[in-house]
Design brief:
With about 120 residues, this protein is an all-beta fold. The protein has no helices and 10 strands. The chain has a 5-stranded mixed barrel.
């Protein structure tokens, strides 16, 4: 079972319905809202902790060790990126690392990831 610790919770407004998107990655929009990642090139702002419907406050974690829904098999030690739906996947060619997997998971399960969202070059 995945656990979480050392979270830095942030509050934003959901730009769309995120009520079924707990533990997915979101991006920050220029208007102070967040939306689910739509492309592997989107910058991850955090992982949804407390989902919400459009226009309501949504809590995200921007640091710490978080649960993140896996979109592919992840092993402990893997550098983690996001797919185009906000799920955690291993870093691939042309993608950025958003953290390190500390407890692996199969696709559709929850991995534990130590977030590192400022690793852009």
């Amino acid at each position: 079972m995945a656990t979480q610790q050392g979270l830095t919770p942030l509050s934003y407004v959901a730009s769309g319905d995120l009520s079924a998107k707990q533990f997915y990655a979101v991006k920050a929009n220029g208007d102070g809202t967040v939306a689910i990642i739509a492309a592997v090139t989107d910058r991850v702002a955090g992982i949804v902790q407390e989902p919400a419907t459009a226009g309501k406050a949504v809590a995200i974690a921007a640091s710490g060790q978080v649960k993140w829904l896996a979109g592919a098999t992840l092993a402990a030690g893997d550098a983690v990126s996001t797919d185009n739906a906000g799920k955690a996947v291993p870093v691939g060619t042309g993608t950025k690392s958003h953290g390190t997997c500390v407890r692996g998971a199969a696709s559709g399960e929850y991995a534990e990831v130590l977030l590192s969202l400022n690793g852009y070059s």
